[in-house]
Amino acid sequence: xxxxxxxxxxxxxxxxxxxxxxxxxxxxxxxxxxxxxxxxxxxxxxxxxxxxxxxxxxxxxxxxxxxxxxxxxxxxxxxxxxxxxxxxxxxxxxxxxxxxxxxxxxxxxxxxxxxxxxxxxxxxxxxxxxxxxxxxxxxxxxxxxxxxxxxxxxxxxxxxxxxxxxxxxxxxxxxxxxxxxxxxxxxxxxxxxxxxxxxxxxxxxxxxxxxxxxxxxxxxxxxxxxxxxxxxxxxxxxxxxxxxxxxxxxxxxxxxxxxxxxxxxxxxxxxxxxxxxxxxxxxxxxxxxxxxxxxxxxxxxxxxxxxxxxxxxxxxxxxxxxxxxxxxxxxxxxxxxxxxxxxxx
Length: 345
Prior knowledge:
Blueprint: H1 14-22, H2 32-45, E1 56-62, H3 77-87, H4 92-100, E2 103-110, E3 121-123, H5 141-160, E4 165-171, H6 175-187, H7 203-219, H8 226-233, H9 236-250, E5 254-257, H10 260-272, E6 280-282, H11 291-298, H12 314-332, H13 336-339
Parallel strand pairs: 1-2, 1-4, 2-3, 4-5, 5-6
Helix pairs in contact: 1-2, 2-12, 4-12, 5-9, 6-8, 6-10, 9-10, 10-11
């Protein structure tokens, strides 16, 4: 299994960062979360003058065998259709990426479709969709290992292009079901509290989804380790995202975490390498059932509450201007001495 060297940021710079933030021309603590973010980013980058460079949003895409059980409002062919919409610039995440100057990278991790050669689509297909975890593991250990490695490779490419802040998104019919399974198995939160509407199920649809997932959980006979849960219930796009997040932390990048599915990927990554959470900023609390409980379990405070459940990295990109403001605050505000203002607290 690929190993990562994820180090905790050196805390020696903390005092200097706090001193700078507290001596900007404002009452102490008056810029709230912006001050917290500036401190976190300064720690990650080990500097009093942090920067945000070439932000990327990486979208891993794959189909799920469990979708054959009718647990999603959308059929599997929607995955490939949405990918074409990404590539044509017409998806929800596309206008947000244009608005906030994010470069999009779209990866075929395991879509059940044979794409022609498309320069804008990165071909990393493991298999044409995972297996149906109601009856068997979604993937083999070898496929999981390859997914982690290829997910990490994508992030290395972003880093080599000058990127130091990265968001992750996903596309794959059935991946809220897979995420619910990760959540219940990795946190102990009851499955009923982890299952939601996904792409728009009604009450009866959610009930059927829960019953299918409960049967799959009852059928599970693995060892319960993080890796085993990942490969048994996960999607190729989810495991690639875990690999991408771990590589980003190893490279000391700022990691923006999106909604329910990507928060589950951050959960799995943190169980493998706990220090990764020091590099993560959680963009929002979404409208998918279970997301709030998952954020609480991780003891993290998301920036936005907009009732989003689109995925694709949309929520983390929406939160990016707040992160940009935090960096501008520490770099552009004058200190009391510079401004010749009497310190008033």
